[in-house]
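job 3f2a | input accepted
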Amino acid sequence: MNSAELKSFFSDFLEQRGVEVAEGDIEQYNFVEEGALDSFELLSMILQIESQFGVKVTPSELMDESNAQLGALINTILAK
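job 3f2a | predicted structure (80 res):
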């Protein structure tokens, strides 16, 4: 697992839900502030990350304001 794989995962995940984020903006995208994902979609995102990358992500990590931008969340996941 690397940064590029996670960026691609998040880009695809958001696109499947009708959220368009330019490729160069994915790290700065604040999914919490935008409110583009409901609680079911956040849970789905956690489960897919765990399944696809074998990394456990807690809901509190996902909703932690310091991880609100995808680039920070990617760094948190990579640090595991």
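job 3f2a | The chain is about 60% helix and 0% strand.
job 3f2a | closed
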